Amino acid sequence: MQVKKMKNNNILLFITNAVSFVFYLLIGIMIIFVAFSKMTGDQPVLFGYQVKTVLSGSMEPGIQTGSIIAVKTGGDPLKYKEKDVVTYMMNSHQLVTHRIVEVIKKNDNIMYRTKGDNNDGPDTSLLLPKNIVAEYKGLTIPYVGYFIDFTRSKNGIFLLFFLPGMLLICQSAYQVTGIIIDEKEKNNLSVNGEDVPNTG
User: Fold this and answer.
1) Which residues does residue 72 pair with via DSSP β-bridges, in sequence order?
2) CA-CA distances (angstroms) from residue 156 to 140, 145, 162?
3) Given this model, what pLDDT does residue 52 score?
4) Which of 19, 38, 124, 192 has its CA 20 to 30 A from that of 11?
5) What is the largest CA-CA distance in the chain?
6) From the CB of residue 131, how many other CB atoms can be counted at a distance below 10 Å?
7) Strands 94-106 and 45-46, sheet pairing
8) Distance from C-alpha of 112 to C-alpha of 77, rounded to nearest angstrom
9) Is the pTM of this model over 0.70?
10) 48: nearest Cα among 73, 15, 20, 84
């Protein structure tokens, strides 16, 4: 009975450590992401991709409000065709991700007409190729954008650093408590003259 209980404790400890590792890994990635964004004003590029947050519903249902999307940076801005989804600078402070619905060629110049999938009509201004910063390749994760946007606030930054510390303290306290309880049970078995199983 005691051996079975110890095995269950070991399994629980393994699961707890695995979940904690994944959690702290994600928190670490998030901290690096937020720190990079704060220092450079832009998101980091990994293997040619950037992560962008979507906080409007113009591309629903394909891209939900509050999602994050992976966009491919670089490439020839003149290569795009109808139905491609691109991320571009609408102005000096705003990025937009919309679909190209028409390629307009005038003499040697190319411009794009864009539209949000959820909008009634196309955008009022034509898109110049030089304003395109990336192409959306179809990878999106819903709701994470809300969290990333929150972590950029003062309260979010505080929580991002405070929460892992508190969880680490709680986890350590839980493990220490488990060790103390196991030692007490071993001592009780020894006092009662029962054999204590060797778990080493």
Assistant:
1) 49, 135
2) 22, 13, 10
3) 86
4) 192
5) 97
6) 17
7) unpaired
8) 10
9) no
10) 73
- Token readout for 88 is 């571009």
Q: What angle do CA 179, 185, 186 make, to 5 degrees?
A: 90
Give me the residue label for tokens 């695995």. Answer: 18
**Distance between CA atoms of 162 and 83, rounded to whole angstroms?**
44
Q: What is the pLDDT along the chain (200 residues), one digit of tens a residue?
A: 545 555 555 676 677 667 767 766 766 666 666 666 655 455 656 667 888 888 889 999 999 998 989 899 888 999 999 999 999 999 878 889 999 999 999 888 999 999 999 999 999 999 999 999 999 988 898 888 787 777 667 777 677 667 767 777 777 777 777 777 777 766 766 655 555 455 44
Sheet with 45-46, side-by-side order of all strands = 45-46, 49-54, 67-73, 132-141, 85-91, 94-106, 109-115
Q: Which two tokens stand for residue 43?
A: 């998101």
Q: How many angstroms separate the first and last alpha carbons of the chain?
A: 17
Lookup: tokens for 115: 């539209």
Contact at 8 Å (CB) between 50 and 134?
Answer: yes
The set of residues, in sequence order, having a beta carbon less than 8 Å from that of 116 and lying 6+ positions away, is 58, 59, 98, 99, 123
Find, among 87, 102, 9, 86, the residue nearest to 43 by Cα: 87
The residues carrying an active-site annotation are: 56
